[in-house]
């Protein structure tokens, strides 16, 4: 018997290697797509390193915001690796992505083992597949999400999750240390985790009568964060400096995708993307709270985290609408909702993956069916699933229809149905046919089939955990495959990279290029040449975080040179709709070769080269080209016909 038990344990431990399959596939995908996609998207560690090492190449460059990578200690490793070991950022970024996937997976495994110490390794494997290779953690109200792109977000998140793992293990000092490390990598992420850890520590300190120890640790932690902030950040960058507050808020609303969830329709038109899924996870957690076999202390810790992250999210949403403080907008407190999602999903998965699979089997099937949609839908699980759990529990107790418990569940079910119906009436039924809801048809069919099989052969689900792991494994591969970039985009990105490489090899290092100002951030990464900038840089990223008034004024000047007055695009709903309306107007002007715009830009800003996208050419006759490929061409400003006249 012991030999059988030992073999089962060995096979169970081997399940950890399942995670290597999606990691390997993800790395393979990145190898084929990353560098070309960076050429168009920009804002990468590659541009950051070359700006730091070869500053002379970017003396005429407008700030793009990428220089602020220097505020994160993890990003300094890129520069050190290039300076001392001659490892280029083009190579190191793949190493970083590999480390992101490995480190985040190991941290989640450790977190799972800390939450449920006696659980099977299958629980940790399942959570890793869900948290690393699905959309489940990308549902936060700030719409940040977790992207594996070789930057600092994943490392900051891994450090804070490690801090929470130590918190569950009651290793308080280690918990604070890793929370401070998270703060040094990304201040906002670290600060929110520190608030959660400190509050939970306070709760247990009062209970255990160790308030003196709590006070000492928190004073040291606060001092560490204050020193890092003092030596690493310019004091003016924390606020809005001398930039007019109304302009700062108006422009940040015009270009932002994260800070203003109400304006972005997260609670109205697009409620199904974030608001409903978060409510769903919390409601399912409440419904299974007593059913879970997690220890009371673990439950108290998770509850304490919810008691911090939910109010922080609410305050963040309120501040985003009512506050005029740039500091509060930058802090983006509602991003703490990602911790709510993480620990709600962790709690639900721990319930699904309990060793005794026969306990509450139908409820576990419903929970898993809701969660598994995260592999297929950008917004999941939908709010249908708490209702399914309530209906099942009411029907299961049909022999006692008048009991108090059934009445309470009926009231909750009616309240939930009313809540959903009111939302649909107010904001329209058309969103029912969005991917977030249409996926329910397939999942509901699977759920119905599984329930039917269970009613005929209950013993099939004795190994529910194995079924869950296999489904999650196949779904994670599908999720990675679905996130691949389309061929047409990659071909265009590859051509833009080739255009940049040509510029690097064939133009003076101090040249100033003016690429199409509607292209996102790409140009500097492979060209190593200064850019005149784009509309987002002029009116948003070049001054948003450093609060430099001079850069703000220069951005307005460059936008005005192309005939853009941002005030004409304010007042849209959502506010960043004005940004999208601005792009075709700006593009039309930039591609009108019959006007004297380019000549004026050359004379005012001393631009040597212009870069154009063939896709947007109009009837104007293009000037003489000095470089051309399938998608892009470069012209020398001196050879513009209008300028020569």
Topology:
Layout: H1 2-14, H2 20-41, H3 45-53, H4 76-85, H5 89-115, H6 121-132, H7 153-168, H8 172-185, H9 187-208, H10 211-232, H11 245-255, H12 275-288, H13 296-322, H14 326-331, H15 337-352, H16 361-371, H17 384-396, H18 404-427, H19 435-456, H20 464-482, H21 487-506, E1 512-515, H22 524-527, E2 530-531, H23 535-544, H24 549-561, H25 577-590, H26 597-605, E3 609-613, E4 625-628, E5 632-636, H27 641-644
Parallel strand pairs: 1-2, 1-3
Antiparallel strand pairs: 3-5, 4-5
Helix pairs in contact: 2-5, 2-20, 2-21, 3-4, 5-6, 5-7, 6-15, 6-20, 7-8, 7-9, 8-9, 8-10, 9-10, 9-13, 11-23, 12-15, 12-17, 13-15, 15-16, 16-17, 16-19, 17-18, 23-24
Report on this structure.
There is one protein chain. 63% of the residues lie in helices and 3% in strands. The chain has 645 residues and is mostly helical. A 5-stranded mixed sheet has the order 2-1-3-5-4, covered by helices on one side. Helix 6 runs antiparallel to helix 15, helix 8 runs antiparallel to helix 9 (187-208) and helix 8 runs parallel beside helix 10.
């Amino acid at each position: 018997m012991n030999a059988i038990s030992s073999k089962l344990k060995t096979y169970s431990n081997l399940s950890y290697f399942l995670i290597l399959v999606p990691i390997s596939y993800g790395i393979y995908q990145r190898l084929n797509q990353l560098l070309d996609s960076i050429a168009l998207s920009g804002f990468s560690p590659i541009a950051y390193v070359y700006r730091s090492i070869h500053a002379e190449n970017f003396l005429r460059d407008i700030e793009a915001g990428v220089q602020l990578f220097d505020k994160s200690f993890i990003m300094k490793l890129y520069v050190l690796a290039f300076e001392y070991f001659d490892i280029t950022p083009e190579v190191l970024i793949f190493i970083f992505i590999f480390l992101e996937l490995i480190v985040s997976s190991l941290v989640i495994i450790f977190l799972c083992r800390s939450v449920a110490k006696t659980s099977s390794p299958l629980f940790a494997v399942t959570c890793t597949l869900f948290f690393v290779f699905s959309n489940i953690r990308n549902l936060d109200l700030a719409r940040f999400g977790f992207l594996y792109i070789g930057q600092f977000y994943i490392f900051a998140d891994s450090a804070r999750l490690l801090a929470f793992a130590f918190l569950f293990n009651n290793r308080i000092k280690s918990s604070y240390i890793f929370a401070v490390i998270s703060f040094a990598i990304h201040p906002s992420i670290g600060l929110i985790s520190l608030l959660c850890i400190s509050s939970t520590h306070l709760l247990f300190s009062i209970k255990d009568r160790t308030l003196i120890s709590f006070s000492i640790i928190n004073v040291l932690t606060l001092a560490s964060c204050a020193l890092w902030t003092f030596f690493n950040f310019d004091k003016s960058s924390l606020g809005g400096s001398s930039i007019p507050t109304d302009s700062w808020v108006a422009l940040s609303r015009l270009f932002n995708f994260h800070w203003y969830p109400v304006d972005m329709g997260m609670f109205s038109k697009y409620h199904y993307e974030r608001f409903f899924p978060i409510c769903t996870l919390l409601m399912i957690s409440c419904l299974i709270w007593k059913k879970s076999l997690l220890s009371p202390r673990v439950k108290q810790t998770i509850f304490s985290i919810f008691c911090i992250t939910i109010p922080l999210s609410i305050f963040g949403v309120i501040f985003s609408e009512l506050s005029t403080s740039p500091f509060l907008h930058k802090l983006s407190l509602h991003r703490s909702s990602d911790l709510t999602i993480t620990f709600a999903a962790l709690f639900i998965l721990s319930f699904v993956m309990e060793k005794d699979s026969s306990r509450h089997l139908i409820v576990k099937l419903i929970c898993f069916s809701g969660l598994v949609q995260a592999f297929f839908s950008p917004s999941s699980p939908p709010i249908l699933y708490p209702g399914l759990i309530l209906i099942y529990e009411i029907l299961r107790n049909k022999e006692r229809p008048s009991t108090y418990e059934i009445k309470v569940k009926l009231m909750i079910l009616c309240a939930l149905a009313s809540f959903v119906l009111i939302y649909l009436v107010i904001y329209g039924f058309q969103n029912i046919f969005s991917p977030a809801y249409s996926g329910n048809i397939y999942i509901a069919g699977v759920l119905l089939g599984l329930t039917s099989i269970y009613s005929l052969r209950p013993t099939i689900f004795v190994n529910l955990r194995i079924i869950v792991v296999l489904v999650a494994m196949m779904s994670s591969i599908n999720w990675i495959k679905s996130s691949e970039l389309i061929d047409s985009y990659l071909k265009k990105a590859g051509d833009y990279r080739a255009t940049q490489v040509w510029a690097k090899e064939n133009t003076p290092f101090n040249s100033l290029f003016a690429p199409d100002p509607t292209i996102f951030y790409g140009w500097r990464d492979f060209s190593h040449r200064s850019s005149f900038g784009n509309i987002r840089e002029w009116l948003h990223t070049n001054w948003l975080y450093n609060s430099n008034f001079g850069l703000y004024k220069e951005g307005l000047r460059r936008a005005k040179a192309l005939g853009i007055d941002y005030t004409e695009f304010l007042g849209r709903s959502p506010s960043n709709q004005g940004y999208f309306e601005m792009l075709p107007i700006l593009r039309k002007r930039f591609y009108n070769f019959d006007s004297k715009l380019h000549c004026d830009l050359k004379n005012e800003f001393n631009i040597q080269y212009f870069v154009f996208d063939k896709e947007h050419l109009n009837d104007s006759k293009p000037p003489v080209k000095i470089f051309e490929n399938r998608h892009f061409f470069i012209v020398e400003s001196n050879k513009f016909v209008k300028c020569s006249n």
